[in-house]
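Sample intake sheet
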Amino acid sequence: MVSRTNKFRGRSRYHGRGKKAGRGAGKRGGRGNAGLNKHKVMTRLKYMPGHWGMHGFNRHPGLRVVNSSINLGSVAEIAEGDSIDLTEMGFDKLLGRGSIDRALKITVREASSRAVEKVEAAGGSVETGDDEEWGEWEEE
């Protein structure tokens, strides 16, 4: 069997590709993501789910709220003494993952209900931004 290149050598000017298609790097329809909406649409549907179109939405950056949170287990490790102020350390929210084995007085803007339960079960207390003295954090 003769290769395609040898078959056309000397007999055809454009090797069966027409005039313009045979120049340069040739036809690129099989390279990369070319043809995903044409002849490779089934490949896209099968192997690239969610590849096409817009998904979800983006909120305006001014409306985004990103909490800097810390878990209870980490607080128990870094706390020195019997009280700790997480707001001064740059944390906004206390989460309940981990365990605590001593009574701590924790000051933080927000805390999950599970975190509060665990701290109170260990004999400590959590002071959150919901109290009156935290007026600067109230939403307008």
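Comment: The CA atoms of residues 44 and 51 lie 7 Å apart. The chain has a mean pLDDT of 84.
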